[in-house]
Amino acid sequence: DAASKGGFEHYMLKEIFEQPEALRNTMRGRLLFADGSAKLAGLDANRLELRNLNRIIITACGTSYYAGMVGEYLIEDLAGVPVEVEYASEFRYRNPIIKPGTLVFVISQSGETADTLAALREAQTKGATVLGICNAVGSTIARESNGGVYLHAGPEIGVASTKAFSSQVTVLAMVALLLGRERRVSAEQGIEFAHAIAKIPEQIEEILKLSDKIREIAKKYVNAHNFLYLGRHYNYPVAMEGALKLKEISYIHAEGYPAAEMKHGPIALIDENMPVVVIAPKDSLFDKVLSNVREIKARGGRIIAVTTEDCTELSDYADDVIYVPKVNSMLMPLITCVPLQLLAYHIAVLRGNDVDQPRNLAKSVTVE
Ligand code: G6P
Questions:
Q1: Which residue in the list 199, 220, 297, 363 is annotated as catalytic?
Q2: Contact indicator for 281, 336 with CB cutoff of 8 Å
Q3: Is the C-beta atom of 116 inside 6 A of ligand 1?
Q4: Which atom, in ligand 1's list, is nearest to the CA of 361?
Q5: pLDDT (tens digit, 9 = 90+) per residue, 105-124?
Q6: Average pLDDT of the segment spanning 154-168
Q7: How far is the CA of 113 from the centre of ligand 1 (A)?
Q8: Tens digit of pLDDT for each residue in 184-230?
Q9: Cα(109) to centroid(ligand 1), Å
């Protein structure tokens, strides 16, 4: 058991630390630096559909759904194609509209999630080409989809998904690059983006060095009953995923919110008993998020901020600041997800929970 955990106390921690390697495997041989594009062999048979599509639907459950939300922003930004993201459990039962030119992506780490599989079948029945983004090779979803991309992240044992999330986002970044280069992204922009993707693993290595510091922060919040996670734009899905990680393994109630929506409800909850995790890299929306931070502070809230190394403002307001490397905004989720995984992990361990096998949860939900 200890050997299979590679010296780590839990599979989850091992998998968090495996992310640089997992992402290198996800992108190996797939980034075309000379053309500024991506080569995804599993989509070769679907070239025509990729060229002719005019709308994309991404459907998934749990953490894979949040990766899909990042995918929506990536594909819309780079390729200019409208994308909708939907929970597979909703998609399968609401008679979704599929027209010629609608392409469906299903995302599933296990490739066995019952709702996601049913969504795939529903889309195919309606005539859509369905592409799978799976980790488990030969899984049902991988077999039944019309093409797809494997994560190559290696087996994920911890019930709370970590490296699969970052690998899914990496695949979606490459899909967006591919679609973008066929549409409106120049070779120069593509080359820059491909290099930015390739650099992510070493940047994650830097963040992993913060694990002990994040454990110290976690100690202050072990007895919290509620957490709020805020982020905007590319970091909104990360806020959702960060809150999900905390719920899954620490059993602390947590909500993710787009930061600007705070004033439409969650602000009423803020006091000294409601820690708020704010994901606020120095980007075009930083000043807006900073004003949220000020509002939280004015109401006595405790703030854990995740920001980029070039930020000087947040230390005046936040109780703790976690600094991460600055990358292209479109790839920021690959960076900001990591400290949130570590925060959830350390809080759960400090609470004495079984982080690899949290109560009531299954790694793969194969029943409805
Ligand atoms: C379960 C797992 C989650 C996972 C979700 C979707 O809820 O506990 O970690 O994100 O299923 O799983 P999938 O294998 O389809 O990505």
A1: 363
A2: yes
A3: yes
A4: 8
A5: 999 999 999 999 999 999 99
A6: 97
A7: 7
A8: 999 999 999 999 999 999 999 999 999 999 999 999 999 999 999 99
A9: 7
The percent of residues above 70 in pLDDT, for the chain, comes to 99
Instruction: Give dist(CA 15, CA 23) in Å, integer.
Output: 11
Q: Which residue has a Cα nearest atom 7 of ligand 1?
A: 62
- Cβ atoms 282, 310 nearer than 8 A: yes
CA distance 292 to 297: 9
pLDDT digits (tens, 9 = 90+) for 116-146: 999 999 999 999 999 999 999 999 999 999 9
Please answer whether residues 125 and 24 qualify as being in contact, where contact means their C-beta atoms are separated by less than 8 angstroms: no
Distance 365 CA to ligand 1 centre (A): 7
Of the candidates 233, 250, 252, 228, the residue with the CA atom closest to the CA atom of residue 305: 228
Q: Which atom of ligand 1 is nearest to the CA of 362?
A: 8
What is the per-residue pLDDT across 56-77, written as a single tens digit (0 to 9) for each?
999 999 999 999 999 999 999 9
The SS3 assignment for 203 reads helix
Instruction: Write down the pTM of the prediction.
Output: 0.98
Kindly state if the Cβ of 108 falls inside 6 Å of ligand 1: yes
Q: What is the ipTM of this complex?
A: 0.98
2 has a pLDDT exceeding 80: no
Tell me the CA–centroid distance for residue 74 and ligand 1, in Å.
Answer: 22
What Å distances lie between residue 147 and 18, 108, 302, CA to CA?
A: 27, 14, 47
Number of H helices, E strands in the chain: 13, 12
Task: Check if 220 is active-site.
Answer: no
CA atoms in the 13 A half-sphere facing the CB of 284: 5
C-beta 363 within 6 A of ligand 1? yes
Per-residue exposure over 124-146, b if at least 16 CB sit within 10 Å of its own CB, e if not: beeebbbbbbbbbeebbbbebbb
Quote the strand ranges of the chain, DSSP E.
Answer: 31-32, 37-38, 55-60, 83-87, 102-108, 129-134, 147-150, 226-231, 253-258, 276-279, 303-308, 320-324
Alpha-carbon distance 345 to 368, whole Å?
Answer: 28
